[in-house]
Design a protein that fits this description.
Blueprint: H1 4-12, E1 28-33, H2 39-50, E2 53-56, H3 57-68, H4 74-84, H5 91-100, E3 111-114, H6 120-133, E4 139-144, H7 147-155, E5 157-160, E6 166-168, E7 187-188, H8 195-209, H9 212-217, E8 222-226, H10 231-240
Parallel strand pairs: 1-3, 1-4, 2-3, 4-8
Antiparallel strand pairs: 5-6, 5-7
The structure holds BIS(adenosine)-5'-pentaphosphate and magnesium ion.
Residues 33, 35-41, 56-58, 61, 82-83, 86-89, 94, 115-116, 118, 122, 153, 157, 166-168, 171-172, 192, 201, 229-231, 234 line the site of BIS(adenosine)-5'-pentaphosphate.
Length: 243
């Protein structure tokens, strides 16, 4: 039940004219948690079962890289260089991109914001944007996992540049026939999944993004979920939090 039109509008800035049936109960969640905790994996489960569209700012930057070519703007090129080293892209750039795509937040399908907001300044900008478009949040799913496990998940991850799905050399190996969209030939290791960049990302997460848990705790929207165990076990815990 993934809405491809909303996803294309988010990733490639395409015009949004959705005609497919909207879910009866559109969920609007933020997915929070360290790099590699499994946000993208849970977003796929949630999206397939409940129709809410995964809106990932990381996927947005990676899509610009594969489709932009010579047409990449200096701002986007700077964002990609920053990202490959594991640092955060500037708040201004990220907030501008999300603002340009605000129709994706009010499409009626619901949304799973994955990787945004990532700083308190971004969270404040999101509050303002949601108020402007008359939308609100159902909750913030905050996934937690010990650092050693996070590093294992990240270093073995392989990502499909075509369908964006993630696999894992040990925990979720790709087998021919697994994915009708990509057939395995587009699987790559992300540049920021190299050891140096992983270290920077984890440090950046602790400093800039972890404080968001306290930010959302105050609003009563925070659901903290252990990301240990299989993806299905984590999804079962996630579903217990759905209103
Ligand atoms: P982004 O793409 O958001 O990356 P991230 O937050 O670092 O998160 P990941 O995608 O690495 O991890 P995930 O939690 O989705 O894990 P996954 O499900 O793949 O951002 C990338 C960069 O973009 C940032 O560093 C920054 O530069 C920039 N950026 C993006 N947004 C920004 C913003 N708002 N502001 C500033 N800069 C921004 O799972 C990981 C692996 O584990 C997979 O291989 C998976 O198969 C496996 N796995 C998942 N669940 C399980 C499980 N339960 N058991 C075993 N294996 C599992
Ligand atoms: Mg991800």
């Amino acid at each position: 039940m993934v809405n491809q039109e909303v996803l294309d509008a988010w990733l490639y800035g395409k015009k949004l004219e959705c005609t497919a049936k909207r879910p009866d109960r559109p969920y609007r969640f933020i997915l929070l948690g360290a790099p590699g905790v499994g946000k993208g994996t849970q977003a796929v489960f949630l999206s397939e079962k409940y129709g809410a569209v995964q809106l990932s700012t990381g996927d947005l930057f990676r899509a610009a890289k594969t489709t932009g070519g010579d047409a990449l703007t200096p701002v986007m090129q700077a964002a990609l260089d920053t990202m490959n080293k594991g640092h955060l892209v500037s708040d201004e750039t990220v907030v501008d991109l999300v603002r340009e795509r605000r129709d994706c937040l009010s499409s009626g399908y619901g949304f799973l914001l994955d990787g945004f907001p990532r700083t308190v300044a971004q969270a404040e900008a999101l509050d303002t944007l949601l108020a402007e478009i008359g939308e609100s949040l159902d909750g913030v799913l905050n996934y937690t996992l010990p650092t050693e496990e996070v590093v294992r998940r990240l270093s073995g991850r392989r990502t499909c540049t075509k369908c964006k799905r993630t696999w894992h050399v040990e925990f979720n190996p790709f087998r021919p026939g697994d994915c009708q969209d990509c057939s395995g030939e587009y699987l790559i290791q992300r540049e920021d999944d190299q050891p140096d960049a992983i270290r920077v990302r984890l440090e950046t997460y602790e400093k800039s993004t972890a404080p968001l848990a306290a930010y959302y705790e105050k609003t009563g929207l925070l659901y903290t979920i252990s990301a240990a165990g299989t993806p299905e076990e984590v999804f079962a815990r996630t579903e217990e939090c759905l209103p």
